[in-house]
Amino acid sequence: MKKTLSLAASLAVAATCALGAALPVHAADRNATTSVTSQALQSAIDSSTATPRAKALAEQILAELPADWESRAQAAAAKYGIDDSRWSAIRDSVINPDDHQCQSTELKTWARSLLMGAEDPFTIFMLSIFDGFNLPTYDALIFGEESSSNTFGVNGEYTQKLPAEMKNLKRFWDIDSADIQLIPLHGADVFSSPERVARTLAALYGGTPEDQLDLADMFIELVNMEPILKGGANPVFSFNAFAYTEEREPEPTGISDRIIVGDGILQGMDAVGLGDVAPRAIVGHEFGHHVQYEDDLFAGDLDGPEATRRTELMADAFGTYYVTHARGEALNTARVLKAQKSFYQVGDCGFDNPGHHGTPNQRLAASTWAADVVEDAPDQGHILPSLKFAGMFDAKLPDLVKPDAVN
Fold it and tell me: Is the pTM value of this prediction over 0.85?
């Protein structure tokens, strides 16, 4: 099973909405967008009020790409688990949005500001069409390797903390986790290297990295053309954290089990006052997905959005249980509340979206329940087996997701 883009990708799409156009291929919400043919794209270029150089560059990229560039990009997204368009149908089990409070959060407000004030929205639109915003994600997913030279955080501020967190998580949970790697996701590093962009384009569109060097230069110029993108350092390029495995995948690509953490999501959590605790909660959540992979916890009676919501809320619970537990991070009450708020911040209102992760209130409820399990345990030093904890969560799930709307 492959699982990617599990935490924050949809927020990057939300950030682009201020431009007045849905950006088609930036994240897991591709089912909400329409297919763009080369002919329609050429028409959009012709009618654009963008600068002559921007229009010329878009035409050059379009000419350089293979004729079936869109289908190749979609095939790559499906191959690596990024494209969720196959789940676009609304399931019969979708919950009623009117039954639930689903407010916005500070993190979403911050994310929506990332592309505000762009000098040329056409440049951003073209990058999205050609999957440019996903290039750093592909780079980390396909080519990233765990290394002592890796840095985490835009200024390296989490370089010591996050690897230490991974070591603790591997000791804490009762799964075979020795092969799980922790990989950073940076934006500017990718777009400062034609070679890295070229190898990623080759993975997307075919050919060799050498074949794609000219195209890579065009993408880099397109990124550098819009000041708000900061040469790829804008958090929108790395506003994500996700777990990945090919466990039980019938056609594995050879990518190792991994957790990828982007600079952008760390910047976002810091911007809303959660920078000290949220990174731990994020890694704990993503490690929770690996517990689910190893324990085969994705199977169940639910499907569609409700199935995804279950696995995401369970990962929230795994993460909170770890950061709260005396043998985990043993956070004090104030910091536990911050961890819980971290999950609240990434709740969503996509009730009919197969990628629905739970509302802010539901994510907070799952986290609060897990903290209570720790607090109420008669033996504070005992770590529950992961399967037992998951069983307790499933028994509690109906209460966690019950209607909470105020009539």
Answer: no
